Amino acid sequence: MMKTLFIADLHLSEQHPKITQALYTFLEKNKTDIDALYILGDLFEVWIGDDEHTPLMDEVAEQLSQYSSINGVPIYYIHGNRDFMIGKRYAKQSSMQLLPEHYELDLYGTSTLLMHGDTLCLADKNYQKMRKVIHNPVLQFIFNLLPLHFRKKIGWKIRTASQSKKVHKNNNMMGVTQSEVERLLVKHNCTTLIHGHTHQVAKHQFDINGHSHQRIDVGDWYHKFSYLEVTKESVELHIEKVE
């Protein structure tokens, strides 16, 4: 039976080679009967521009491109909060198709909304303010004009500051705001929301105006990796240990 796969929040970096290998193993195990693979953001821990070329970036691009071309599996990508600067150049290198931050999908007859999920966490007001700044297209254009070595310093400083602040955030701040979930589902006329970002893998069932809806967080790949597998008959979250 054909299936569609969803993953997010791998945060690939040279410091965690086991996660990179887990990705390659995942691709090898899931190469037949796949309609599509959706990566819902934060594939990399940090991204400062398509003009940077590291062995990890190029290797991941090659693996994804081979997976898509050899197995005939389209790969779709929604930007995360760590790698929102991934551009058309790297997407082409990786055989990924870039999607908008909110993407409506007919998933085997179920109207589904896909997103990274960071804009759902409205309780984290400081992050939401920062997000508006760093997603400003004018500032992004100026940032890309800076020398690569300078952008690297800025990128890793932002990453370090973000990790430091995350330690002090509670689950309420990292969790989603239910009213925002419902607003988006109504706006996009969808019954299911699939996202990442919070690293809180789970399925949530709830009603909106008397009609059943669900939200699925696909989880992260730090200590255990998780992915969502959807067919015409089932919706399953898989959680496996990173070896």
Automatic annotation (TrEMBL):
The entry's keywords: Cell inner membrane, Cell membrane, Hydrolase, Lipid A biosynthesis, Lipid biosynthesis, Lipid metabolism, Manganese, Membrane, Metal-binding
GO molecular function: hydrolase activity
Ranges for domain Calcineurin-like phosphoesterase: 2-200
Domain of life: Bacteria
Cofactors named for this entry: Mn(2+)
UniProt binding sites for substrate: N81, R82, D124, S162, K166, K169, H197
Pathway listed: Glycolipid biosynthesis; lipid IV(A) biosynthesis; lipid IV(A) from (3R)-3-hydroxytetradecanoyl-[acyl-carrier-protein] and UDP-N-acetyl-alpha-D-glucosamine: step 4/6
Record field: catalytic activity: UDP-2-N,3-O-bis[(3R)-3-hydroxytetradecanoyl]-alpha-D-glucosamine + H2O = 2-N,3-O-bis[(3R)-3-hydroxytetradecanoyl]-alpha-D-glucosaminyl 1-phosphate + UMP + 2 H(+)
EC numbers: 3.6.1.54
Entry's cofactor comment: Binds 2 Mn(2+) ions per subunit in a binuclear metal center.
Membrane topology, as annotated: Peripheral membrane protein
UniProt-annotated binding residues for Mn(2+) 1: D9, H11, D42, H199
Compartment list: Cell inner membrane
CDD domains for this protein: MPP_YbbF-LpxH
Enzyme type, top EC level: hydrolase
Chief subcellular location: membrane
Binding site for Mn(2+) 2: D42, N81, H116, H197
Function according to Swiss-Prot or TrEMBL: Hydrolyzes the pyrophosphate bond of UDP-2,3-diacylglucosamine to yield 2,3-diacylglucosamine 1-phosphate (lipid X) and UMP by catalyzing the attack of water at the alpha-P atom. Involved in the biosynthesis of lipid A, a phosphorylated glycolipid that anchors the lipopolysaccharide to the outer membrane of the cell.
PANTHER family named among the record's database cross-references: UDP-2,3-DIACYLGLUCOSAMINE HYDROLASE (PTHR34990:SF1), UDP-2,3-DIACYLGLUCOSAMINE HYDROLASE-RELATED (PTHR34990)
HAMAP family assigned: LpxH
Similarity comment: family membership: Belongs to the LpxH family.
Entry protein name: UDP-2,3-diacylglucosamine hydrolase
